[in-house]
Amino acid sequence: AAVISFPFLPEEIPFHFSDGAPGNYMSKYFIFLIPILQFFIMISGSNRNMLPDQLNQLLNDSEYSWAVFGILVFTLLLELLIIAVML
Q1: Which of these, 53, 35, 46, 50, lies nearest to 69 by C-alpha position?
Q2: Which pTM does this prediction carry?
């Protein structure tokens, strides 16, 4: 979604609003931040040994997979929302 919408975005995207007016701007290249975040969540989510022992015992494999999937879907929806607002 970020790659497809990239050519249609303005060079600077407002990201902070105060009283309805944009206060700060960021480069349009920052829309790639969320896909990069998703990639790192996916990579770290595949290594369940990174969890503390208490959390590792709390979740079984299926619950852990659903939790990682939920985080990835949430960040995808967030990315789509940001892109939709900017277009």
Answers
A1: 46
A2: 0.50
> Residue 85: CA atoms inside 13 Å, Cβ hemisphere, count?
10
The long-range contacts involving 30-35, CB below 8 angstroms and separated by at least 24 positions, are: 31/2, 31/5, 31/6, 31/79, 31/82, 31/83, 31/86, 32/2, 34/2, 34/75, 34/78, 34/79, 34/82, 35/2, 35/79
Dihedral sign (CA 36, 41, 44, 45): negative
Closest CA to 86 of 28, 21, 34, 29: 28
- The pLDDT assigned to 87 comes to 63
